Amino acid sequence: MMLHSTVDAVTREVIRKSAPTRQAYLARLQAARPDGVQRSAIGCTNLAHGFAAFPASDKLLLREQKKPSVAIVSSYNDMLSAHQPFERFPAIIKQAAREAGAVAQFAGGTPAMCDGVTQGQPGMELSLFSRDTIAMSTAIALSHNMFDAAVFLGICDKIVPGLLIGALHFGHLPAVFVPGGPMSSGLSNTEKSRIRQLYAQGKIGREELLEAEAQSYHSPGTCTFYGTANSNQLLMEVMGLHLPGAAFIMPGTPLRDALTAAATRRAVELGSSDAAWIPVGHVVDEKAIVNAIVMLLASGGSTNHTLHLVAIARAAGIVIDWNDFSILSSVVPQLTRIYPNGNADINHFQAAGGPGFLIRELLDAGVLHEDVTTILGKGLRAHCMEPFLENERLVWKPATQNSADEAVLRPGERPFSPEGGLRLLTGNLGRAVIKVSAVKPEHRVVEAPAIVFDSQEAFLHAFQAGNLERDFVAVLRYQGPRANGMPELHALTPALGSLQDAGRRVALVTDGRMSGASGKVPAAIHVSPEVLAGGPLGRVRDGDMLRVDGVRGVLEALVDEATWQARTIEAPPAGAHQLGMGRELFAMFRNTVGTAEQGAATFALPPVLPGRVPDDVMLPADAPPGSDEDFLARPN
Fold it and tell me: Structural domain of residue 551, as residue ranges?
């Protein structure tokens, strides 16, 4: 299938504007490539420290300095249901590595906070910055310089982007990402949303609400709605960092364990000196980043990735911005409906055909690059597969030809929409993104008076007092990364949803986030520049007419120019969001963070080095596979 001309044009532009920093990144990657196993470069004292606590057989292999050592970097904790299954994974990985003639070492852990626990709490203001903290923790784990490849255990929100950013700063190492899988389906998403709105309206109590929530989030595994966690998993699939079809296999099953062992064997192969070198910095190239944006759009994925993908690309020396998302959205068909874009959950999506079906349909539609290198050492077509156990042997089969439920997953020729689920908004209020895939067409344009708030609490007090029974655009300012770490604002969703259901025309405009659970109310989010950085959203006053137009891509205050320019930008309340719940430790992040459109990153692009970069640092698109045999075809 010929590549769509718009996808081709966007990719060429990304390659053009990234050329200096990408070449600098690749030169640095090439310089870090070792001769032989990595640990041969360190001294005997260092090496002895590195294997002192290991069993004799593992210690012997590490002393010989011939077989690869695979790092395990895990974000395990049992506060996150999605990460609790990772408690068992290191033992599986170590045994699989031994059986493959290598050694796996638990290199380090990273923090992993649950946004579901911290929503609406002060701790939520650490959430976005936890991504770069995780990247730094990953760097510390890999800094021992003992490793020839790495497996990364993570699923949720900021955690997978942080692990990948950290991995890309060790871009010379092969990397395999290992998911844990979703929990089984619980209370339906429609019923959960209904009960939340009843609670926001004061019609039921906390006990009824807690019972509904406990029926929704009830066991180990990823939350089953299509938020950032499950968006992460689809992006790892399409970027070729998972074994095919690994994303949504439930934890605690024989198939899940078999996939974890197989991922380890692949990491061993990639880390072996006689295998083709496929480092993560070559897998994540410009085409892979464009593929990730396309998958995000086609699936109606998390708006958080308008930050995270920018930061991931930046870590690999690649420059993208919201224009790239917007242009691609105009040609990428939307092929899924998973809550909040529909009623189904991620398990329904998997049963309907899953990632392999979706990747194949997007390839056949000409909107994905097939000629990329993945951890299989092949093009993306090799990932249009689904894993199975047959007689206790792991095998892959081609993804189903037909969707089992076209209310959830459709073929490319019958999309839910011919365009993707995200839009870029521009105007005199700045630049913002809006997720329209879950917003009904009749609600995508709102023109109404502004009501300005400085906190979620102020909005909720006004709602509970009955002061919002009218058409309005809520302006929630001082929620950007510099101001307070750019928290998610889901506490507003039930209230806004109930007002919209009552016939009010409402919208939200904020320099904060709404993320993967962005729902049925139009929300212009990530407004950039943020108010604390001088953004024009700080000029809005109560009663100004605002227009949020998710169809034409407009975000503007309908105020005459002279009045608008004469206004000052109001300062935030003194001392707010600086102290308590550990926030004082993150002052350096608030002081150095970039804009939302730059990924809200605290690290710089690779410095451009003087002199010409050798041509041979570029990995050709037809790079050889990691071994002579087809990994998917042989017994596992």
Answer: 422-598
